[in-house]
Every structure is written in structure tokens, then in C-alpha cells.
What does this fold into?
Amino acid sequence: MAEPYQHKIANALGDPKLQLAIYSATGRLADGRRRTVSTEAFPDYQELRQHAHEIKKHTLNHLDFYLQELERNVEARGGRVIWARDGQEARAFIRNLARERATNLIVKSKSMTTEEIHLNEHLAQDGIEAVETDLGEYILQLAGEKPFHIIAPALHKTREDIAHLFERRLHAAHETTPERLTAIARAALREKFLEAGIGITGANFLVADSGMVVLVENEGNARLSCSAPRIHVAVSGIEKVIPRAQDLGVFLNLLGRSATGQPLSVYTSFLSGPRREGELDGPEEFYLVLLDNGRTKVLADAEKRQSLYCIRCGACLNNCPVYRKIGGYSYPWVYSGPIGKILTPQFMGVHQDPWLPFASSLCGACAEVCPVKIEIPKILLALRAEITEAGIQKGGMVEKLAFRMWAWLMRHPRIYERVAPVAAAAASRLPRAGPLKAWLSQRDLPPLARRSFRQLWRERRK
Ligand code: SF4
It folds into this structure.
């Protein structure tokens, strides 16, 4: 029987509407990125990437120091830091806080960290309603679905889909323009903002030297979530800390460009603790939940530690030839695309979905666009080695034999040169039937060159 992931992938590949939606949305995001990081538009882009990489490397190598500095500064500004070893501890804190403050309505802005710990579902079991306020997340919550993409969660939904959903769930008129659909969602959400006792956000960056939480968004709902309710809770992975406020110049310049092709996102909020005397807005209470949930396990591996540099821009998804075909629901965990392929096995253990690191062509597009220069292909290879060495996933006999022959030929260039033309002629006569037919239904098999590069080179030199 086929594995569930194979079904999901087959379904995605066989759905032309979905294929078009993924291809055009990721294409638009990738084009936007390319335009804003081109040498003409942003001459310092490569230097800035390197700088961001160095800052992340330094911070993670001294994570204990910066987290303690962050805690001191958050508390000096009247906030409180909660250390959560796992999702259970983070959820328990939020549930108890809601009970103590007698609230059963929470507004939330988009946060992959709270998706990771299934916060909404657990709160619902305790009778607490958590309402997503990011438009894409709100649509998915109404539809009972999970985010399809790190930064564009409802990327796979068409306007018609959303219009039908709003008709059904909000009893709204059938509207299909983005403006009208947004107005419908806004009217429904405004009530929730006014009624909610707690606002929960994630965090894009945590600044150690000032105890600041930085939120980056385009809709303004995160800003409302942390200022309209009386209590603000920010839930963040421990890896989001950066040393100094001045480092923000590096990361903010990279994040918007890499995510959506914007030089800067529309709203950047710098939040430092609860409202102080004389201030007009802001929450009365502020809590920062610092979540481990497997991060220190990743941190312990010096080679793969760089997986934690991720600033969740989504550029690797938009440029990945695999994600652009199979989409976000084919991946087993909340993090999809290339970053999901390296985070999931490290967080969940390599036994859980051992196929994941192998589902890559290792083309390197992800590493090329990553603003913090995470060497994703290198980590994929390390994970493959781990899985193979542990005997969890074994290639078939034919595959093993083919790779052994290939490796042997590569070590014997003279023989390779003799064999290559024969192989090229044989490949052109392969019958397009049987297993090859299925393989070719999604791919091209261009004819191999009749003459090798070496031959051409020799002729040219003559
Ligand atoms: S791995 Fe790099 S490109 Fe992918 S989401 Fe993270 S920061 Fe962005």
C-alpha cells in the first residue's frame, strides 16, 4: 500500500488548478525577490547576506549569553519571560493565564511557532477560542486547513474559493474582488479585536540588548493583536534572538526583499514591554514565551546548527522545483519546502519521515536565495548519510548497482570516454513504456549529446 505522503504528492501533481495556483504565486514572489536583490537595485546584497550569516552564527554559538541578556532586558521593562521546554509547557502557561484573567477569547497574528505547538486546537479543547487575524490564516481557519506556505498561508486558494467560504461560514454576500473580500474579513475580525482579552503574536526578531520584540507584517493585524487586548503574549523560538538593535538594519533589509520582494514590509513594530505611564497605547501586561521544543537538540550539532539561522522568509520554497510541484500539504510538518526538509528530521527524528531529505534534486536553488546563507543541500546530504548509516532507508538493488557503476566509471575517465557514446545511443532507444513512462509523464528525457565535452574540447584545440 502506498504511503500517505505518496498519495498527497500524487493528488497535488494531478490537480491542474492547484498546480497553476502554486506555480503563479511562487513565481510572482520569486520574481519580486529577484528584482529587489539585483545588483542594480541593491548593490550591497551579497555583503549583507554574509553579514547576516555571521551574526546568526555568532549568536547561536553564544545563545545562552544572549538569551539571558534578553531576559534581563525584557524584565527591566516590566515584561516577564517564560521558558518553555516544549509545546506542552508553552500551552499550559497560556491556558492558565487565560483562566486567571477570565478570558475565553484570544486574537492571534500569524505565527508558525504556535502552529508548531498546535496552540489553537489545544486551547479549543479548553473552551478558549483563538481567532487568527492574518487574512490568509483567517481564511484557512474558517476552512479548517493548515498553512500551505510559510509566508503566504492561503496561496493555494482562489478568490472564488474564498468567496464561497465566506458565504458559507460568514453568511456574506458573494464577492470576489480582493477589496470586498478583505472588507468582509475585516468587519468580522474587528469585533474579535475589541472583545479579546489576550493577543498572541510570534516574533520575527528578539533583540537582546534592548529586550525588544520585533514584528514584521503587511496587514497591521499583528500590531492590533498586541495593542488592542489588555495582555500581549509573544511566543517565539529561542533562535530568534539577535544581539543588538543595530543588527536589525541587516535583517530587515533582507527579510522583506527575500519574502515578497518589498524593500521593507508595510508594518515593522518594535515592542518593548507593557504600556508605561504616560503612553497612550500598548498592553497592560506583556509575556515572552521562549520555546525550545527541540531547538537545543539541533543546536548541539555543530554542522547542522545553521538550520536555526532561518528567518522564515519563504524564498527557498518559492525557488524550489520540488515545492513548486508538490505544494505545502505534501510535507509532514508545519515547515514545508527545503527548510522543512532539514528542520523536520532534526526536530522529529530521522525515523519519522526518512524519505524527506531524499526528496530533493540537490539543485542548490534554496542555498542560492537564502538570505542567511544556510547550506541546505549540505545538510540534506548529512541527513541522508545519517539515515542510510542507521539502516532506516535503503536504496533498491538496481539503484545501488547503478550508482556503484557510475562511481567506478567516474574514477576511470578513459573507460568512461569509451562507454559514454554507447550509453548515449542506448538511452535514445529506450522504450518509453513501463516504469519509464510514468517517470516521463512529469519530466523530460532530453537525448544525450552524441559527442562528449572532452571530444569537443580536443577538436577545438586542434
Ligand atoms: S531557509 Fe533561508 S530561504 Fe528558506 S525560509 Fe529560511 S531564511 Fe528563508
